[in-house]
Amino acid sequence: MSTVDASHSPPYIPKKAKIGEPQSRTLQQQQRLWGWIFLSPWIIGFTLFTAAPIIMSLGFTFTNFSLSSTDPIEFVGLANWQKLLTDPLALTALGVTLKFAALAVPIGIILPLGLAVLLNAKHLFGKRIWRTLFYMPYMVPAVSGIFIWMSFMNAQAGWLNRFLKLIGIQDPPNWLGDASWILPAFVFMGIWGVGNAMLTMLATIQGVPTELYEAADVDGANSVIKFFRITLPMISPVIFYNLVLSVIGLMQYFVVPYVVTRGTGQPGNSAYFFNMHLYKTAFTFFDMGYGATQAWLIFIVALILTVGLFLSSRYWVYYAGERE
After folding, report:
1. In the structure, what pLDDT confidence band is assigned to residue 72 with cuts at 50, 70 and 90?
2. Structural domain contains residue 69
3. Hey, which residues does 56 pair with through a beta bridge?
4. pTM (2 decimals)?
């Protein structure tokens, strides 16, 4: 028998699959396939219950769609937008919303930041207790918390006005019945729930490298300089995160004024927020076309503010390790 020289044997050529034969998938292809399979419930749910209603609501803005009428839906072009931009009540509601945002956003950032710095102090007694106490109000159901605050800020029998009279203020404000005080009252109610933002800022402060503070101590920097030159820049991404969430949340502000004023926005429409006007239009008068237009307007306002924050972030938000 003759032997075959292995050095001269032809190289192995993988057999090509014939047309019609199933081809085996690579591991990467199988992982990608199973990834899409596991994502499919979320994708289907998002498409049916979020993306589709958003697109439909945009279409409603150009129609006279009303649930209280049997008339057929008709295309009206920009009539709803023209009506919205000339609606004095809608413009008043938008102004109240923006005014409240201007009051609430700075306090909603500065206060939790101050509490986080305070609770990060080395010699503070009972840190864990204080952190728990500051966070607990965030866990209280919204409506229950509103009723507590309404009782606390009652003009005649509330504990806040009792305390103010005790310290010598004989004519304390009518917090929930005076047009000039009701928005500050809502800000006070919002202060009660800053525990979540405080914890995120506290966790970020504790993650600042100690080497930076040690180097600053060597250079003779005091606590104020270290806060503004080290702490604040290092936690600026979390401040930016809370700022964006606050702006978006305030553009959706509804529950507190609706419960406090029973949906009236009184006194003098000083608590008539834009989402209350939207709610009345869509779910009291069932004018879905005009209501969808209002929803898209507040979305556009929130989008403009958010984009503005992102554009400004390049000048004051610091990301460690980021290269220009």
Report:
1. confident
2. no
3. none
4. 0.83
